[in-house]
Amino acid sequence: MAEITLSGLAHSYQASPAGAADYAIRQLDHVWEQGGAYALLGPSGCGKSTLLNIISGLLAPSEGEVRFDGVAVNDLPPEARNIAQVFQFPVVYDTMTVFDNLAFPLRNVKTPEAKVRERVAEVAEILELTDRLERKARNLSADDKQKVSMGRGLVRDNVSAILFDEPLTVIDPQLKWKLRRKLKEIHRRFAVTMIYVTHDQLEASTFADKIAVMYDGQIVQFGTPRELFERPNHTFVGYFIGSPGMNFIEVHARDGEVVSGAFPLVLDAATARGVAQVCQDSSNVKLGIRPEFVEVCTEAGADSMTAQVLQVQDLGTYAIVHLGLGEISLKARIDEGKPMPGHEAHVRFPAQHLGLYVDEFRREDRR
Amino acid sequence: MNKVRNNRAWWLVLPMLALVAFSAIVPLMTVVNYSVQDVFDANTRFFTGTEWFVKMLNDPALQAALARQFAFSLTILAIEVPLGVGIALLMPKRGIRASLVLILVTLPLLIPWNVVGSIWQIFTRGDIGLMGWSLRELGYPYNLTSSPVDAWVTIVIMDVWHWTPLVALLCYSGLQAIPEAYYQAARIDRASRWAVFRYIQLPKLTNVLVIGVLLRFMHSFMIYAEPFVLTGGGPGSSTTFLSQSLAIMATAQFDVGPSAAFSLIYFLIILLVCWVFYTAIMQMQKDRQSGGPHE
Prior knowledge:
The complex is a heterodimer of chains A (367) and B (295).
Chain A: E1 4-12, E2 23-32, E3 37-41, H1 48-56, E4 63-68, E5 71-72, H2 78-81, E6 84-86, H3 98-107, H4 113-126, H5 142-154, E7 162-165, H6 173-190, E8 194-198, H7 201-207, E9 210-215, E10 218-223, H8 225-230, H9 235-240, E11 247-250, E12 252-254, E13 257-260, E14 263-264, H10 269-278, E15 285-289, E16 295-297, E17 305-314, E18 318-325, E19 328-335, E20 344-348, E21 355-358, E22 361-363
Parallel strand pairs in A: 3-8, 3-9, 6-7, 7-8
Antiparallel strand pairs in A: 1-2, 1-4, 4-5, 9-10, 11-15, 12-13, 13-14, 15-21, 16-20, 17-18, 17-20, 18-19, 21-22
Helix pairs in contact in A: 3-4, 3-5
Chain B: H1 14-35, E1 37-39, E2 45-47, H2 51-58, H3 60-90, H4 96-106, H5 113-123, H6 130-137, H7 148-176, H8 180-188, H9 193-221, H10 225-230, H11 242-252, H12 256-289
Antiparallel strand pairs in B: 1-2
């Protein structure tokens, strides 16, 4: 049980990193509070696993400090950090039975055998391995092997944290759902800090109370699934969360108007002012709006823009409409039963759902 | 499915059959031929049946050589296998140092058998050999030609020096094949160094060790050139192993019949031991596999 603080953390796999590109993790500050269920979400190669290995101590960071409850643990090996970690692919000790596998982490620290039996029985019960306890681990299916792998992480009851590195990759979808619920249950029961690495937003949002989105070696946003959806802090979060991702429109201020390329956008006054203001300092200004929030009407209104309908993807309960707004391509989501535009649509960007992004980061104080 | 009546495809087996006949069956049958006859000269021979076999099996000198042979093979296996595993564990895993150590370790494997014998013959000489001279200077009356213990120990050390690298090399490749995740999981599970060896490395080494033990057993059971050069089988016949007894009989005494019978017995022993060993291992693996519906 511990609060895990990462301070000024950076890591490079090269001996003498030359530039920012050589770093797998760049200048990262973050606090994982004790008892939270967290997800670390990001695309492959963004540094998620690296970060996890640094927390567990399998990897020593090039720079910065890892603190457990305020005490620096940089110099402690994993075995001394009292941390559990479950890997992407099942690791079982082939020659041992399932019981011995689960008991292994306890027996390694000379836990009394009665206690071992009690803990193993409990974990086996949760993971539904009770009827296989006497089997050799090598004969298990991939699913069961991964359950054993997870079980070894869960069997220790006083760990600082349990780290999961995409643990459900090899598990079939139905069981995946079930195991994820079990993990949540375990989290509620033992109140141990859990950090769950994944590249699947659905997995992250069903498991975690708070999600850290990682991109290019940095945590670009840390928040609830709802916050990530409604107020993405970085254009990447917008792209990555939601399906389809957020629309981003590159904009400039010109003669009191907001334009994208040559196309003049119809916006509310506050947003237009905000754009004009930030355009003085930066040439990388974007407006972001989720496809769910783009209003599509069949008839023109005072503040609407005329768009071409390029393609309609019908997904059953809703449709994704691909629109051409001048040079801009835009996606909008239209729920079942709403009127479907023909060749032309009239779109409107509601002010409360429009985000202003300067140099890829969200600017909140635009009004 | 309809059975195909055309059996001409069998002709395709012919080249392989010819090859096997030439490489194995014909030479072997020559030996079988000699083993059941008493040959006096090119034109005079008598059929003797199993007489040579009975005689060979009851020959006390050969029985002693056989016992020595087993003692030798088991001794070097007991030393070389653990030592090879140990060396493999100590070898660096990657980088330039790994390559260097690999070359150094495998160097003895590249030396021909009789050269190894010569090297050690010189090495152990009391007057100019480093080992022989040093031992004598240290006060130990080391003498290959008069002390059976010295001769035995020297031959065992020589074999260990020559062939442990093979076991080490096999184990090294086996260790390299273990994914890093196993070691990481073990560290997370707070496993001791011994537990890592016992539950991760050793199980993953089983397959290469089976090959290693088989190879080393067969090799050592046929050992000839090294002791022949080093001790000539002496003192007395204390280091005369099977193949040397056979060579003396066949080439020096020219007892073709008994030698042939003896060769066959020798061949069958090796075959038998390998078969028993192989079957035992396969049975062990099957036992471990059973009890589960998967894999």
